[in-house]
Structure formats: structure tokens, C-alpha cells
Design a protein that fits this description.
The two termini are 24 Å apart. The protein is an alpha/beta fold. It is built from twelve helices and six strands.
Length: 254
């Protein structure tokens, strides 16, 4: 448990294997990849926590979570970001003859990402793509039309990229209608695939500094979130994890 949230001790290949196994048996599900910001939000909002509790697979996206798990003495094996899973799952779906749908991103982004996946994975079945207009989820008729389009495509896997918690709310609406489909809430990953957004260099990802890269790209939007809200929460999470382990040792000695 980290921040009151239970995580699956899965590596990236184990997440992929679980999805493939579910498709074989006809069982769909949801994958969510919490980072520090998501943990901070669910700590303040019980309704948001339900999205994590209802997900079949919860894996950590963010080095601070890996560090915290190690300090707590219950180390998670690896960071598993959605921006990596979108590639590994697409590879697996192509090999298994399964279909994917791209939902999200700025207008036109999902279509660009689909072209990239088509070039990279000729055997991948692309069930469709859609980048709804901003605020579509506030307009009932448009929201229904978006969901109907995805349901009619009947994909095996949907990459949903609207950011937390909007993407989780969309997934919650789609799941009852597509019980055999898997869903990955992947944030900005559709934009990464399309090439309209850039990921941090590998060394920044490995050293836990990916947030610095994103902050540099969108300072006005992310300054308060990262520096005022998330940074103190991350510090408390690390200290609390270390204290949890120390307290456990003390109780074990008694």
C-alpha cells in the first residue's frame, strides 16, 4: 500500500501477459498507472479513489512511488508508465491478431497516432480513432455519440488519453457496454505516439526528473500542481513510508 492505495507488483511484461490472458478467457478490465499527482488527488477525494479500487491492474508510474515502496520495505519491482505500455500493448495486440482503438488527445492527434502505429505494426488491427472536442463530456448528446462510436467499433483494447480523472470517468461509462474489452488510461501517451508531444530523455525518466521536463514545457499549467501540491505530498509519502518500516521493526522487536 502507498498512500492508502494498493498496487500490483507487476513489471511491464506481466501487465501485457495479464491483458492477453484476459482476452483469451473473454474477460476485459482496466489498467491505471497512478503517479504522485494521482495519489495526491485520491487522498483528498474518496470518489476518485473508487476508480483505482475498481481497476483490475494498478501499477506505479513515477520513481517517487518506487522509492517510497522500497523505504516501506515492500518494494515494487519497476515503474510501469502508460506511455511505455501503449507501445508494449500495441506490440502484443499485433502479435495476437487483436484490435485497438485510440480515444483522446487534441483534435487530430488520435488519427496521427493511428498512422504511426499502422506503420510500426502492419499486423495490428486498428478499430478506429477519435479525438473529441474539448468539453465533449459536458454535452450529453456529444458524450453519448462518442461512447456509441467506441462501442460500435468493439475493440479488444482502448487507449484512453484525457488525463486523470476524466479518462477514468469515460472508461467507467464504457466498461459496462464493453465487458470483454481492456482499457488503459494513458494520459498524454497518444500525443507521444503521434509525435505532437515529447517525452523526457531516458536519463530524466530513470532519475525521477520527468516532471521537470513537463514543467518546462507547460510552466503556467503545471507550476502550482507540481511545486505547491505534489512536491510536499511526495515528501510526506517518502517520510511516511520510511516511518512505517521503522515502526514495523520496532514492533517486531517487542
Amino acid at each position: 500500500m502507498l498512500g492508502g492505495v494498493g498496487f500490483h507488483p507487476f513489471r511491464e511484461d506481466e501487465v501485457v501477459a495479464a491483458v492477453l490472458a484476459g482476452l483469451v478467457t473473454g474477460h476485459g478490465g482496466q489498467i491505471i498507472t497512478p503517479n504522485v499527482d494521482i495519489l495526491h488527488r485520491v487522498a483528498r477525494d474518496a470518489d476518485l479513489r473508487q476508480h483505482l479500487e475498481k481497476s483490475e491492474i494498478v501499477v506505479a508510474d513515477g520513481k517517487p512511488l518506487i522509492w517510497a515502496s522500497r523505504l516501506a520495505g515492500n518494494a515494487l519491482p519497476a515503474r510501469v508508465p502508460g506511455s511505455d505500455l501503449i507501445w508494449s500493448l500495441a506490440t502484443a495486440m499485433a502479435g495476437a491478431g487483436r484490435s485497438v482503438y485510440l480515444l483522446g488527445g487534441e483534435p487530430g492527434t488520435a488519427g496521427q497516432a493511428e498512422e504511426v502505429l499502422r506503420d510500426r505494426f502492419p499486423d495490428l488491427k486498428l478499430a478506429g480513432h477519435l479525438s473529441p472536442s474539448l468539453g465533449f463530456d459536458t454535452r450529453p448528446q456529444e458524450y453519448d455519440a462518442v461512447c456509441d462510436e467506441v462501442v460500435d467499433a468493439a475493440p479488444d483494447l482502448v487507449f484512453v488519453g484525457f488525463g486523470f480523472p476524466k479518462q477514468e470517468r469515460v472508461i467507467a461509462r464504457l466498461r459496462p457496454r464493453l465487458p470483454q474489452t481492456w482499457f488503459l488510461g494513458c494520459g498524454a501517451a497518444i500525443g507521444f505516439v503521434a509525435g505532437v508531444r515529447s517525452r523526457a530523455p531516458g536519463w530524466m525518466q530513470e532519475s525521477g526528473l520527468e516532471w521537470v521536463h513537463r514543467l518546462a514545457l507547460e510552466p503556467r499549467r503545471l507550476m502550482r500542481r507540481y511545486l505547491v501540491d505534489d512536491a510536499p505530498f511526495a515528501a510526506r509519502l517518502l517520510v511516511g513510508s520510511a516511518w512505517q518500516r521503522l515502526r514495523g521493526r520496532r514492533e517486531g522487536v517487542r
